[in-house]
Amino acid sequence: MFRDIRFAIRSATRNPVLTAVIVISLALGIGANTTIFTLINAVFLRPLPVSDPGRLAQVFTVMPKSTAYQSVSLANYRDFRDHVSEFSGLTAYQFIGANLTGGTEPVSIGGQLVTGNYFDVLGVGAAHGRTFTPDEDKTLGAAPVMVISDGLWKRVFASDLEVVGRTVTLNGFTFAVVGIMPPAFRGLQTLGIVDFWAPLAMHEQLVTGETARTFYSARNSLAFQVVGRLQQDVSLDRVRQAMKTMAKRLEEQYPTENEGRSVEVFPLTESALGVGGRDELVRSGACCSQPLDSCCSSRAATLRACCSRARWRGARRSPCDFPLALPGGGSFANCWRRAACWRCSADSPASSWRTGAVTCCGRSVLPACAPTSSI
């Protein structure tokens, strides 16, 4: 073994430029793959930490002469909530930042202003304490309460259960901590962290600036994410049609603010990535695996050349590379990449995989040796 190590060191130092290129290529390939499959794990392999996520849907505003999907105004949300019975509950939330004092040290944290039914609609409860009641979101400034995340509880409050019921300061105003969420619940966003939740009725205490405060009264301020839970035995198409009908009615009632605007509804499991984001991430995952694929292919070629001179000596020096040294071993990374992408795009038709239909930059990013059996 020591003889092999000395041989490897001599080989590396004999051509330092080539060694540097190999090391950098491996670092880039492994780093890119680690990043993209971390995203895939967070998005596809971990379900949303809510009750029955398949019955949750997100509402978007569709602007005239635009294909972009945007947020919803608070005024329109309230009309949808009160008049669309196909939803058993409809909630709205907005991202904010705040300065917190009262823990182990002052910190800047990110949170959400949410309607009082937020946790009820999602079907998730607190691990310690409680969540909000609908009454705590009815009167402006009347309920200075907050729910904190498990991460904030551990990071700032040292996992002290006595924090429930304690008062802290957010942006100079006193708030009472009423609950701590389970570790798995970090909000509905795919990436990023939410440290706390506060009732939407407390926005005057937590949101500064006159322009920002108009978000809560102007019907044309598209500043809120809206998520609803479908009634039992109600299809998404039926909900979508009911929402479009209501949007048309709001356009007639408020032509100045809602002229040409409609809505679209998508399953929350899809919209968590952004509409169409699932396919894009699959393509990105296949593209980002190309550097590692190239590294493996180059390594395989080197090993096969080594084996042609001394068949078993090269494989003995690096037993983990033995599969790559075999004939056809260069396709190992291809198979690994295809298997990962297959898991993440199980909804794609079998024919697209057989023909290598997943492309990026105008070329196929899946090998032609994909299985031909039906999914």
Give keywords.
single chain; 375 residues; two-stranded antiparallel sheet; globular; disordered C terminus
- How do the helices and strands follow one another from N- to C-terminus? HHEEHEEHEEHEEEHHEHHEHHHHHHHEE
Beta content comes to 15-25%
Number of strands: 13
Shape assignment: globular
The CA-CA distance between the termini, in Å, is 46 Å
Which structural class should the secondary elements be placed in?
Answer: alpha+beta
Counted by DSSP, the helix tally is: 16
User: How are the strands ordered across the major sheet?
Assistant: 3-4-9-6-8-7
CA-atom Rg in angstroms:
27 Å
Low-confidence stretches: 303-312, 315-333, 335-375
* Count of individual domains: 2
Report the sheet with the most strands, covering strand number, pairing sense and barrel closure.
Answer: 6 strands, mixed, barrel
Overall pLDDT metric:
78
Tell me roughly what share of residues is in helical segments: 40-55%
Polypeptide structure, described:
There is one protein chain. This protein is α+β, with helices and mostly antiparallel strands. The chain is built from 16 helices and 13 strands. The protein has a six-stranded mixed β-barrel. α3 crosses α8.
